[in-house]
Amino acid sequence: MTIDWQPLQKIITNHDSFVLTSHCRADCDAVGSELALARILESLGKQVRIVNGDAVPEHIRFLDAENRVCELGKSATQQELLELDCLIVVDTSAWGQLGPMADVVRDFPGTRVVVDHHVSQDDMEAEVFKDSAAEATGRLILELCEALAVPLTKPIALPLFTAIATDTGWFRFSSVTEKTFLALAKLVAAGVNPPEVFSALFEQHSLPRLYLRGRILEHVVADLGGRLMSTTVTREDFAETGANTTDTEDAINTLLTVAGAEVAVLFVELPEGKTKVSLRSRSDFDVRAIAAQFGGGGHRAAAGVSFEGDLQTTRKAVLDALRAAME
User: Fold this and answer.
1) For residue 153, how many other CB atoms are within 10 A of its CB?
2) What is the Cα–Cα distance from 112 to 121, expressed in whole angstroms?
3) In this structure, what CATH number is given to the domain that contains residue 16?
4) Model's pTM, two decimal places?
């Protein structure tokens, strides 16, 4: 799928002020896309605010060394955002993922835009620029940068490289294509140092994060002869290790390192009484279809859902659905 960027070029040309936002519990693709897009727009003389529904997770805060990403209600108000010309949502098109920013998007009187690579989509009454075949929204922002003829500088390239690297599991997921490496070549040529990015992402973890990883591995359960792997993180695990929900990032992929594993599920008990469910597949099995049964979404090989229920109820419902579909 190829995106026609011309309509977005016109929107950018015709507007002076922008607010950029993305999903709560933002990952590197979300934050990286926001930061790069902000610098692209600013190079064109535009005024830009980046505002999310919650703070940038601690383990990826290195990306936002200048503290550009604001948290709604703390360093940005809804009223001041509604006075800007254009709102751009990146890396999601689902109301449920926006958190407090959903009200800002709904009430925004100006032009709304979505740039995303996920299949699932809500009607945000926005101009949508989407390629569900793209491995990361970061690559789409790179395409937009080129369409706008903006020089690719290191401050733009670094967050985009990080976005692509993380959303592809450091280039090991099936979503990786020739286009991925062509994009990476351009980003490295612009000054990105891959070993430095890897170190910042995977070699600067806290001790609580390491302790939590141990708990996650202790709770692993193999089902269907090892084809279905699952594990849980309880509120007690967080309290006793001193870790937080962002410390579960990438843990699910460890389950898929087991020989014969086809699908992995991570259940995370959240403080507000919900359960976050992450699903991954390294086979032809479509985990997005399972997530959709419970109001979630994502990709064929990577999906998720915020389940309105306690950990045990959620675990039984999702695993029952998976067993029925996989047997």
Assistant:
1) 15
2) 14
3) 3.90.1640.10
4) 0.85
